[in-house]
Amino acid sequence: MKMEEKIKIEVRHLSFYYGSTPALKNITMKIAENKITAVIGPSGCGKSTFIRCLNRMNDILPGTRVEGEILIDGQNIYSPQVDVIELRKRVGLVFQKPNPFPKSIFDNVAYGLRINGVKNKRIIEEIVEKSLRQAALWDEVKDRLKDNAFSLSGGQQQRLCIARALAVEPKVMLFDEPCSAIDPIATAKIESLIHQLRNNYTVIIVTHNMQQAARVSDYTAFLMLGELIEYDKTEKIFTNPSHRLTEDYITGRFG
Amino acid sequence: MKRKKFIQVISFLILRGCAYLILAVLLLFIYDIASKGGAVISWEFLTQAPRRGMTEGGIFPAIVGTFLVTMVTAVISIPVGVFAAIYLNEYARQTRLTRIIRLSIRNLSGVPSIVYGLFGVILFVNAMKFGTSLLSAGLTLGLLTLPWTITASEEALKTVPQSFREGALALGASKWQTIRTNVLPYSFSGIITGAVLGLARAAGETAPIMFTGAAFYLPSLPHSLKDQFMALPYHLYVMATQHHSIIKVRPLAYGTALVLLMLILAINLGAYITRYRLRKIKME
Amino acid sequence: MQILQKKKITRFKESLIQTFFMTNATLAVMILVGIFILLAWSAIPAFKEINFVKFMTGVNWDPTSPVKEEYGILSMVVSTFMVTFGALVIAIPIGIGVAAYLSDVAQPRTREIIKPVVEILAGIPSVVVGFLGIVLFGPLIAHLFHLPNGLNALNGSVLLAIMALPTIISISEDSLKAVPRSYQEASLALGASRWETLVRIKIPAALSGIIASIMLGMGRAIGETMTVLMATGNASAFPHGFLSSIRTMTATIAIELGEVPYFTTHYYALFGVGLVLFIITFLVNLSADLILHRYQEREQ
Known about the structure:
The structure holds three protein chains of three kinds. Chain A is of the alpha/beta class. Chain A has one domain (about 5-250): P-loop containing nucleotide triphosphate hydrolases (Rossmann fold). In chain A, about 35% of the residues lie in helices and about 25% in strands. Chain A is globular, with a radius of gyration of 18 Å. Chain C is mainly α. Helix content of chain C is about 75%, strand content about 0%. Chain C has 13 helices and two strands, in the order αααββαααααααααα. In chain C, strands 1-2 form a two-stranded antiparallel sheet. In chain C, strand 1 and strand 2 form a beta hairpin. Chain C starts with 7 loop residues before the first helix and ends with a helix.
């Protein structure tokens, strides 16, 4: 597939091993800037592993090994000179299960700012409001920012985690099956806000829900057993896939 | 079907019997000490020094001594214990060194208290020339308490969900920032509780302090860390076994036992209440 | 996007912090090794005078005899194991029973009572337990068995059982609680009763923890000093039955260390006893560890 847009992330021959077991095999793809790229595939195909490589979250797992390169804006994030802490400020991650901190709603969103040394109260308040608006949560919580985050519903908690990640002002936003633990109505809200994000962020979203991928994304990558089977514009993948396996998966012949 | 039910009823009854047996034993202990010791407890008993070879008077210096040596123990074992636990739970990878460290900790908690006493004599009393003193005894007790503090602190750290750490790391926090802001505050109550409970155990130990600093009768209270001290457990021991008129001082021994028990109970209660209160604050 | 180079200062600070914490942790290893080394170093001078084999196998411990000094520790070793064995006979069934009761039978309100009871029992200092052995159990045993006094191995066993019980109970209970609910539910769904599920599924699944708890309780009993010192009579002869007065290794050290002149053979020999005691408890605890690990590996 030829990509006309500007490339934000380039994955080159990425392989990932848990011990001696390969979880990702030689993945090469280019991810467009300010677009939404979905990663789909059956359980265990490596989608979560893949996305967690993009912010080197897999570093904290013992006994793992990475081969290949991931270039973000031309810089290989696995090079030894790269500070992984700085990387994670540029590439945000929203987890599958909402994981707000046991702090107030305000403090959750402000957390990333505070650990970066931001002390000015007004700046923090501004960024918190902006992030909560982007996460489509501001109207629901603006009067109770001091409440504990756990008083929110599941869908609201997830939007809070999105706001929290956005507050750090990353360039790339990763979503690891963000709606799998959320009810359908809340899911719709989250999908719509993700769709809005593409104006300002490069978004990669892992999902096991194909309809979601079709609704939300511009490009779709189909992974199976750690290999990249097909990667193309979403429209093409879902209407006229080139690969037999892709077609079988899309049409539900296996899952 | 009915047979199954019958077997279950009988078996569960036996289990219940075991539990009530323990309860009965405890109640028996408490009753005996409380009744015979309570008769002796008075304001004078608690605030006066012993007189006439301990056949009269009080146990005030022993109370003070126990308090002081426990303080020394706290200063030694709590910081080291917490730091070690932080390393084990937050930093350590599954290497051979980590396994050896954990093995050592588990093993240390099973080392007999008299062996700690011997170690204290060799190292603190003789080699470091601290002599028999609060310092030697406190250090010895500190070593004894250390495995407990480490284990309790680690348990407290473990209760913090991994998602707190991952969430912080994903936002670009460093390891130490994550620990400082997202782990320690939420394990604090558990750490403190564990530490204080460890001190309660240290306060009741006799063997480690017998040869490193405790004395049966001293004319005055300790002025410095280099002084010997009186202590409740050691006092009880001597009164119960070596005193020249054991029967006569038996009531005083009961009183000492009661004071010691109440002290330990107070510390335990304090720890639990503090944990309860700290948890309540966290929830709101 | 500019990903900044590693900030050297923060890297250094972070690794300094990590090293600091690691040092505290390795202290544990150093202490354990230190205990062994210092005990051995202090005991070695004794073996210039004493025959090692006679030390380990000799039945008479009589270092102050004006006639013939003897340094055999066998009697006290046997005494230690005897009183420990007695304690375990009592504590294992009751301990597992209470643990099972707490995990499977008790109502929440009863648990709220029994659990603190166990913890309080654990918190009673050994000197107080020993005291109760003198004033409570001693007269009782003397009365039951028509003895002049009740300070003997039986008394010691009962007291040590009481001291080992909380360990056995709490660790066994934790192990039982840790058995996945799915096992229980599967068993019940197949028509097993709660008792059958407990005995056939839960206890076997928790077995490694239960065994570990027993070994830890055993280690506690072997190493107990004050309780046995006060309640077992302290006659240093070879024990002849549970109703005889016995003296354990721990008691021997505690009694004689205060009176022995410094730096004599007797003095060094006491450290020798301490070394043997340390090695025994070290091995017991090590075995408990190995059992745990091997069982866990098999489960995986």
